Amino acid sequence: MFADNQRISRRQLKRQFVLSLVGIFLLFQAGEIASGGGNSVAGMVIGLGFLVLYLFFLVRASAAYGNLEKYFGCIGKWLISLVYLSFLVLSGSFLLEKISFLTERYLLTGVPLPLISAVFILAAGLGMGNEVQRRGRLSEISFPWVIGILVLLLIFAAFHLHAPDFSLMEPWSAETVAEGAYQYFTVGTSVSLAAFLLSRVDKGSRTEKGGTFRSLLHGLLLASAILLAAVVILLGVYGFAGVRDREFPILDLMAGTGLPGGFLKRFDIVWLAVLVFSLLFSLGSILFYGCWLVGRNGRKRDWTRLILAGLIWLGSLIDWQGKKVSDIYVTLLQDIYAPLFLLITALALWAQRRFRSEKTKPQSAESGAKE
Questions:
Q1: Is 244 helix (H, G, I), strand (E, B) or coil?
Q2: Helix, strand, coil proportions of the chain in percent (round to 5)?
Q3: Side-chain half-sphere CA neighbours of 160 within 13 A
Q4: How far apart are the first and last CA of the chain?
Q5: CA–CA–CA angle 349, 135, 294 (5° rounding)
Q6: How far apart, in Å, are the Cα atoms of 353 and each of 204, 234, 288?
Q7: Dihedral sign computed on CA atoms, order 306, 307, 308, 311
Q8: Which has the minimum average pLDDT: 170-179, 181-190, 255-264, 319-328?
Q9: How does pLDDT run across 129-146, given as a tens digit for each residue?
Q10: How many CA within 13 A on the CB side of residue 164?
Q11: Taking the model in full, what pTM does it have?
Q12: Is the Cβ–Cβ distance between 235 and 243 less than 8 Å?
């Protein structure tokens, strides 16, 4: 669509936004929300509302994210970059650990985890690259297939629905609803990474802020709608108690889903491949944003990608006294990174307003002198 100008369309932005979220939502959020019943579903809806509000302000602050040094100075730029780089390494380690675990358990039993992790981080790095347009084109091509297969699988799984026993649902609790809302919101605050790329999004025929916000909003709502559909189907198939007894209930759901006629016996392999691809896209996005934060020079980005991949690979293998990255990830996200993301967005809005006011002062003084 574009020449070699390192720009993407709003449709490409939305599609890569959905691909980065949908696998994470389905694997890590669907079972937890379903097990919490009405409290978690209500919390998800409330958290989604706050996430939409955050997304609105994030787009308005995109100018500061796109040029950190201009608005925050050299020190501020590197402090913010270090916050996001540490988050990217932590999130990448968490994702790679889970992808490797799922692959070893369901696809490549007996293959050493370090080898599986190395292959996946290599595939994510080479497949995504560090070019804006390359990532945009990949999302453009893969989006219909990934989302189409996921929706098709959910439709087939819906044929097994039955009314769950609501007596087993957790009692309504305002505290539990609030916890669910904050949890969903914190998972979604990673959307702040998109703000670093918004200056590269084509304006199209609409205003940049309004059009960009709508594209991101549509992507967020689509990913959330797929998640909500998966939650309803999980409850209808397994019930509240059945969901709580499973580590990854969405995998069990899809393992028991097949095409009508039975001509494809192992349709669960197709489902798992699509899920792993979505998680790999998220992992590749982590490497992409890490390279984008450090610098726009090609050689610097290549070295950054290599170092990030190495740190993520090592992080995914951590096993200190039985503790892995996945055991502390949610706590760090909720207690440290999500509040920091909110603070950075608030500072970005303040820096933009301050910069605009300082820019208009000389003009006001000059006009006064002429009078």
A1: helix
A2: 80, 0, 15
A3: 19
A4: 51
A5: 50
A6: 25, 47, 29
A7: positive
A8: 255-264
A9: 567 777 878 888 888 888
A10: 22
A11: 0.86
A12: yes
